[in-house]
């Protein structure tokens, strides 16, 4: 688990979170603190 890198959604910002549901590394912009999941997962389950 030494891969720190870019957000796997926008690929522009540094990932600071990892989604438990899909395993993606995502940046703050693509992290939903309320749902505790990435925005891709949140969008799929409104
Ligand atoms: Zn992002
Ligand atoms: Zn996710």
Descriptive notes:
This protein is of the alpha+beta class and 46 residues long. It has one domain (1-46). Helices cover 13% and strands 17% of the residues. It has one helix and four strands; from the N terminus they run ββββα. The protein has one helix spanning 39-44; strands spanning 17-18, 25-26, 31-32, 37-38. Strands 1-2 form a two-stranded antiparallel sheet. The protein has a two-stranded antiparallel ribbon with strand order 3-4. A hairpin with a 6-residue loop joins strand 1 and strand 2 (25-26). The radius of gyration is 10 Å and the shape is globular. The model has no long low-confidence stretch (mean pLDDT 90). Bound molecules: zinc ion (2 copies). The site of one zinc ion has 8 residues, from loops. It comes from Halorubrum ezzemoulense. This is HIT-type domain-containing protein.
Notable traits:
globular; 46 residues; 17% strand; 4 strands; 13% helix; binds zinc ion; alpha+beta; two-stranded antiparallel sheet
